[in-house]
Amino acid sequence: MDESILQKPSLSSLARHLVTRSPMGVRSAALCAVLVFSNLPAIAFAQTSCPGIHVRILDIRNSIGAVACALFESPEGFPAEFLQFATNIMIIKVRDTQARCDFLDIPPGTYALAVIHDENMDGKLNTNWLGIPREGYGFSNDAKALLGAPSFEAASFSYDGQSLDLTIGLNY
Questions:
Q1: Percent of the chain with pLDDT over 90
Q2: What domain of life is recorded for the organism (predicted)?
Q3: How far apart are the first and last CA of the chain?
């Protein structure tokens, strides 16, 4: 027998045959199945966010300057003396009035966060002559500043070493 008669159809001709000879519903279902199964490994093996304290900063007034996040593990120096007493400090440039601070490799314990929007990037929270902040500030647990900064205890939270997502709204 002639081998050219017994040749198997190529993959492209088989696909063309299925596309042109199958009803529209079958083609749509097949396409959907291909898309789902092609993304299955990514979905099945997707990792959760890295262990750490992930802080999303809300209510940033503008995109000028940077946001400084200071993580404290004790009341000493909280919140004003962050350069000297904070366990970790992260400074992030504000982009589109958004910022996020991610503290990774943090051991379990009790912590408190202080955040400032340092618009003029001078490394401190600027105040007026009465001591009222002119730049944005916020604390974990949405601790309020009444006639001064809140206490470490008011802003403290427990961290178990896993992934913790926090949001801190700024006050101006």
A1: 64
A2: Bacteria
A3: 88
